[in-house]
Amino acid sequence: MRRLTLGSRKYIPFLTVAGLLMATAAGFGVSNLTAGPFGHLGMSVARADTCDDSGDGTCDDDAGPEGPWTSYYAKESSFQPITMAELQQAKQQADAIPAPDHTPWQPIGPTNVGGRVVDLVVDPSNPTTIYVAAAGGGIWKSTDEGMTFTSAWPGGNTQTMGALAMGPDGTLWAGTGEANPAGGGMTYFGNGVYKSTDGGKTWQNVGLTDSAAIGKIVVNPNNPNEVWVAAAGSIYTSSPQRGIYHTTDGGQTWQLALAPPNATTGGIDIALDPANPNRVYAALWDHHRDPAARTYGGVGSGLYRSDDDGATWTRLQNITTPLPSYDRAQTGLTSDASLGRIGVAIAPTDPNRVYVVSGDTNGFDKGFFVSNDGGDSFQTAGHANNESEYQWWFGRIWVDPGNENHLFVADVSLRQSFDGGQTWSSVGSVHADQHAMAWDPGTVSTTDQSAERIYLGNDGGIYHTDSDGTTSSSWVHATYEPWNQTYHIAVAADNDNRLATGMQDNGSVRTWTAANPSPTDTSQFNAYGGGDGLLDLPGAGPVIPLQRRHEQGVGPDSPDTGLVDRWLHREPPPSGGSRGYRVEVPAVLLPVQSGSPSC
């Protein structure tokens, strides 16, 4: 969005972009947890494994510095924890600042790109209506089978979302705060659970305001007042409401049904037995983040089952077959420092069939398991994931409600199995990074699934298929999904309809093409670079055409881009030196002479 201005256009001699320095470090274990200055547990850093995938003598091939940031932040810190109350106070102070008296902001695009969707639900009473939760953009509603959307969330509410569910009475439940922790950036937290009884027109906060992030919400299909919530907690600060919460009175009161074993563990996934809603499966995830490392696993992680509506719980870890060879620690689902995120799902057509996927603390695949006795025992199945090394980003399983042997698993690509998880293949024609899926209940069949409609949410927005997802070409992308995750917006000095922006996992996009260098419609953007876009500097007229290649610096591009796109990436280490940083740097486009600017 940008503010619409009136009057003559001001020409700007050069563009400046402020810089931001970030460093990430993955692949660390944790020892000697102590109270730290960052609002949660501090750490001394130790390697969790000794991998060397790049051949450069290091293990952490996608991270930043290993130690200096800890001492730097300690030196600059007040050594006092940042509390949720202080953050709430900062929000109240910001809200109290009077709004300036000027032309209101108007959306101008892009509307055809989309951004990360973390959850979605289908209205069973009207299957052409779906609701989706955008990671950084609230709740959206579609009444045309997921092709176009309108906002169903107040602009004044927190916009970061974690989970979405619908009860049998049509009540919507939304959990704020994304529980997918970022790899190299930030994850913003929310302020609890909301409910809407009028299709998203109005919302009421019903509690768990100190949960920071919500991983999953599940409603009893037989009782709309009974709701389960997986409260993940903040990965940065101390958040007191963590674990699996339960309400039986529509959110008036909440009980902590499954408490975490330590201050860095929270709830991440829940599944109810559709034949017996008193049987509940829940996954806890021990993970946290410091400036020096992301530790996305720990001894608090685990899979549990309750057979008495949450009164008592049993840990599920009985794997009766050899563990997968790719489980580096060879510890399966037992409590171990290597156990990371866990996802669980039940087959609606056979509630004794339970599927589990797990990753390790560094994001590597740890195992995919299947149970035919309700979780009393598990057997190792096929390798569900594609060794993306990002299992802290996924951890989701979806079982076809018409066929217990047909299922999908979230990964960078969408993974699919037709034989109960024994063999897997990737589904093409959809954007990367899968997070949400739901079936149109009116199309589900236990005899012929070929016409089942499935909705999919990923980092590229919303897709749907009317053939059960069995063919890659059947997936259709939404045409109007105006939620995006934009890093920067750049405006050309000679034409303020020439806009360019870098987007999370949607590359760099722009409003113009070589055939249409002066667009009048700014809602339709087109891509000119893949991966993560970041910083774009459009010039006036011909420019030195450079394009950011994801984590590979800059390189020549076709002359019609009219852009300079820079991102200082992680440089190879000098001989005997430490690894470089993944950073964004200040950039200025200076018109040295007509038609030949420099950056």
Detailed description of the structure:
- This protein is mainly beta and 599 residues long.
- Among the domains are: 28-95, no CATH class; 260-427, Methylamine Dehydrogenase, Chain H (7 Propeller), CATH 2.130.10.
- It contains 2 helices and 45 strands.
- A hairpin with a 4-residue loop joins β25 and β26.
- It is globular, with a radius of gyration of 24 Å.
- It starts with a strand and ends with a strand.
- Mean pLDDT is 80; it is low at 1-70, 541-559, 564-574, 576-583 and 594-599.
The gyration radius over C-alpha positions equals 24 Å
CATH C-level of one domain: Mainly Beta
- What is the share of helical residues? under 10%
Mean pLDDT: 80
Provide the structure class: mainly beta
Multimeric organization: single chain
Number of helices: 2
CATH superfamily of one domain: YVTN repeat-like/Quinoprotein amine dehydrogenase
How much β-strand is present in the residues? 35-45%
- What is the CATH architecture assignment of one domain? 7 Propeller
The biggest sheet, with number of strands, parallel, antiparallel or mixed sense and barrel status, is: 4 strands, antiparallel
What's the N-to-C terminus distance?
Answer: 26 Å
Spatial strand arrangement across the major sheet: 6-7-8-9
The count of DSSP E runs of length 2 or more, i.e. the number of strands, is 45
Shape: globular
Give unreliable regions as ranges: 1-70, 541-559, 564-574, 576-583, 594-599
The CATH topology name of one domain reads Methylamine Dehydrogenase, Chain H
